Q: What sequence folds into this?
């Protein structure tokens, strides 16, 4: 029974860094994710004057409830949307002038509704080039707090950023949310705020955050459930078995729900108290699935869809078009390169069974996958490569965003699943 050790959650590490930086006291984070996104987040905090000790298995953060330790800083957020959206929000609670910029793709990704909400709360935030995009400057003078309305229909990260900010404001926040995608990520935020001493209230679409700040703690980071999806999918398509320790019934991450999709397709799934096991059990079935809540796993499902006996249709995933790339089109293009029949619409993708192209004919090689700099495209099509010979990538290294050691770990699993 191969057990796979999955690195820490990107989303939980980013939140933990924010909370620890804002808390009163010293926080220890156990098993943080070490990857481009989270190291970029920690580096950004460093630029803002926070002190972070980074030992391999535990990070120690000196909290500063009063905000950044420097009066001015230039912060490069790399390719990480959590960094690019959470750090300017944290900085707003301090006193000083802070400039933020990001990678070319992150500059293209939106944050307009978050900046509008911050401005509605009195924050002096200016976009340098394009309204609602990086680069931007926050001239921070603390945040009074109060009522604000937010459209989080494009990204739940806008709401997470405001929730995290709430306890750092003088009066607390009442956030009315009109639209919301990726709702389980908000649950992660609320659960983690609780671990740092803050209880968020809920009245329908209104989130109520009390003032008063965070308490330092020791916090253990769960393995990343989105990363685990590639390993679970590998079991499902090879008829093998994979167990991921550390992700069980009490897991915070909604993306563990991907195993329910695999179960509907015919895999055997056991979610235990502190581990999840997926066992491939013959031919996978087609499925129609709404992935609004777990859209980071859309590419994982798309990449294994040709191996199902019926069509696979994934719905309600419009916002995957504004991630590290336009994931709906990137998945469609790469599946077509492999010979699959695929259609897309504004917020859906449908994949018909089978691969009719070169890949399925003996003696021919698969295809080079166009990565678009997107870690999830590479990790997803690595799963396809278990069944299609000759799958290669134009930019395999882009997995560094969330899992620098992915190819080694996946290669090792491949050896155990397909000796
Ligand atoms: O809050 C978070 O940590 C995340 C929320 C999700 O984004 P959206 O809310 O933009 O869908 C997810 O796709 C992203 O990988 C991480
Ligand atoms: C969308 C993703 O990342 P982010 O939005 O945090 O950059 C992701 O990891 O799939």
A:
């Amino acid at each position: 029974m191969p057990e796979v050790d999955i690195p820490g959650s990107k989303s939980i590490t980013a939140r933990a860094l924010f909370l620890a930086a804002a808390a009163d006291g010293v926080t220890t984070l156990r098993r943080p994710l070490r990857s481009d996104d989270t190291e970029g987040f920690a580096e950004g905090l460093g630029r803002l004057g926070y002190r972070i000790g980074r030992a391999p298995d535990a990070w120690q953060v000196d909290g500063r409830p009063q905000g950044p330790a420097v009066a001015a800083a230039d912060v490069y957020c790399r390719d990480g949307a959590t960094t690019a959206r959470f750090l300017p929000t944290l900085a707003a609670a301090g006193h000083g002038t802070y400039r933020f910029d990001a990678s070319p793709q992150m500059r293209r990704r939106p944050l307009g509704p978050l900046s509008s909400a911050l401005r509605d709360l009195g924050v002096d935030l200016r976009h340098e080039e394009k309204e609602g995009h990086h680069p931007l400057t926050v001239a921070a003078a603390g945040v009074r707090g109060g009522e604000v309305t937010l459209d989080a229909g494009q990204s739940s990260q806008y709401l997470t950023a405001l929730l995290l900010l709430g306890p750092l404001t003088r009066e607390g926040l009442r956030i009315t949310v009109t639209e919301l995608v990726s709702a389980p990520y908000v649950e992660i935020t609320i659960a983690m705020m609780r671990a740092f001493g803050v209880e968020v209230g809920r009245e329908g679409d209104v989130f109520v955050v009390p003032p008063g700040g965070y308490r330092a703690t020791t916090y253990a980071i769960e393995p990343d459930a989105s990363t685990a999806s590639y390993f679970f999918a590998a079991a499902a398509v090879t008829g093998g078995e994979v167990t991921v320790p550390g992700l069980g019934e009490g897991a915070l991450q909604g993306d563990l729900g991907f195993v329910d999709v695999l179960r509907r397709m015919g895999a055997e799934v056991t979610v235990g108290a502190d581990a999840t096991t997926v066992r491939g059990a013959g031919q996978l079935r087609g499925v129609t699935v709404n992935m609004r809540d777990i859209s980071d796993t859309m590419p994982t499902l798309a990449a294994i869809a040709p191996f199902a006996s019926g069509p696979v249709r994934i719905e309600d995933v419009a916002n995957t078009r504004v991630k590290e790339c336009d994931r709906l089109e990137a998945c469609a293009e790469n599946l077509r390169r492999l010979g699959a029949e695929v259609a897309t619409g504004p917020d859906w993708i449908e994949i018909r069974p089978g691969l009719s192209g070169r890949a399925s004919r003996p003696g021919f090689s698969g295809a080079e996958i166009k990565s678009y700099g997107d870690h999830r495209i590479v990790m997803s099509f690595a799963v396809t490569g278990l069944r299609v010979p000759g799958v290669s990538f134009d930019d395999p290294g882009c997995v560094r965003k969330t899992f620098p050691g992915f190819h080694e770990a996946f290669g090792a699993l491949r050896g155990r699943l397909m000796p």
In short: The first helix runs from residue 10 to 22. The domain at 225-417 is CATH 3.65.10.10 (UDP-n-acetylglucosamine1-carboxyvinyl-transferase; Chain).
